[in-house]
Write a structure and sequence with these properties.
alpha/beta, five-stranded mixed sheet, two-stranded parallel ribbon, 24% helix, globular
């Protein structure tokens, strides 16, 4: 079963960080929490199993002082969804770009950078996607007070 292969491949990278989830409750089968320096290995593992990238998004964990990047993957031939997540310090939110593995991540990473200020090291063109080019704010950070505030 594909979810077993995905869980095993990710557990080889982060034995403590992988859990099988209740698809009906969560919407995905496997959840892997990896360190920033494990992101590329984890993404290569799911790529090797034929998953496609659905989405990349950010989460601001203000109280914890961290920013999280969540990657959603799915498989076409066998229903299986995998989430890979990593956290970086809020004062230096940088994770490696996965656009070299999944070129479609390019726009997702640019959007996540726009809204959360998370930098994707090695991204080929990390310029604003949706915000004005001179924007110096990230509107989905929890401490964002608005343009007038």
């Amino acid at each position: 079963m594909l979810r077993d292969k995905a869980r095993a491949a990710l557990a080889a990278i982060t034995p403590e960080g992988v859990q099988e989830t209740d698809y009906k409750a969560k919407g995905y089968h496997v959840d892997a929490a990896v360190a920033v320096d494990q992101v590329l290995a984890a993404v290569k593992a799911v790529d090797g199993l034929g998953f496609f990238l659905e989405d990349v998004c950010g989460v601001d964990w203000l109280a914890a002082g961290e920013m999280e990047v969540v990657y959603h993957f799915a498989h076409v031939q066998e229903t299986c969804r995998v989430v890979i997540r990593t956290r970086a310090p809020r004062d230096n939110p940088e994770v490696p770009s996965i656009s070299g593995i999944y070129p479609g991540a390019n726009w997702h990473e640019r959007e996540t950078h726009d809204f959360f200020g998370i930098r994707f090291a090695g991204h080929p063109y990390l310029v604003p996607l949706l915000l004005p080019e001179d924007a110096d704010f990230h509107p989905l950070r929890k401490d964002f007070k608005g343009l007038n505030g």
